[in-house]
Amino acid sequence: RDNTIVIFTSDHGETLGDHGLVQKGCRFYEGLVRVPLIFSWPGHIEAGQRSDALVELSDKAPTLLELCGQDIPENMTGKSLAPILTGKVAPDHHRDFVRCEYYDALQAPDGTLATMYRDLRHKLVVYHGRDYGELYDLQQDPDEFDNQWENPAFANIRADLMKCSFDASIL
To answer: Is-contact 135 158, C-beta < 8 A?
Structure first.
């Protein structure tokens, strides 16, 4: 056990009646995309640490490599959490944003690609090829009930987030 790193996580959460939904599916609500990510390595990682930092599941591989003293390949998309886990940096910030995709997002004959871009304050969901989407101010609406997609006051925010999401998809 002393030389074993244990990771507990999930690939998705569940909707348990929130938003009138059950099970899982193409939605990007916090209950579905914020999953546990627990690392245990006695003597190396202090037990009981908590962080609300934005992370992606692709961060696991570079984290393991760094914790094991191995080089992280430059082309690896994840970002190591080792500095947070070992107490070298504060646990409150890791990434400025996270992004994910879902294919066959909507029940339609041709299928749909949906993408989510979430930064520290907002969440944007785009259903590609459709005229609608979702935009939430997570500070004002943490439960994601007030969709601002069509709100003119959020037009600039929506455009900025769409640009950021596009840039993140090609960089």
So the answer is: yes
Range of the domain at 149: 97-170
Q: Are 165 and 126 spatial neighbours (Cβ–Cβ below 8 Å)?
A: yes
CB 68 within 8 Å of CB 43: no
CA 114, 58, 54, 25 torsion-angle sign: positive
Instruction: CATH number of the domain at 155, please.
Output: 3.30.1120
Q: Is 161 part of a structural domain of the chain?
A: yes
Cβ of 161: how many Cβ atoms within 10 Å? 22
Between CA 109 and CA 101 the distance in angstroms is: 19
**6-58, pLDDT tens digit by residue?**
999 987 766 666 666 666 666 787 777 888 899 999 999 989 988 889 999 99
Backbone angles phi, psi at 79, to 5 degrees: -125, 125
Model pLDDT, residue 36: 87
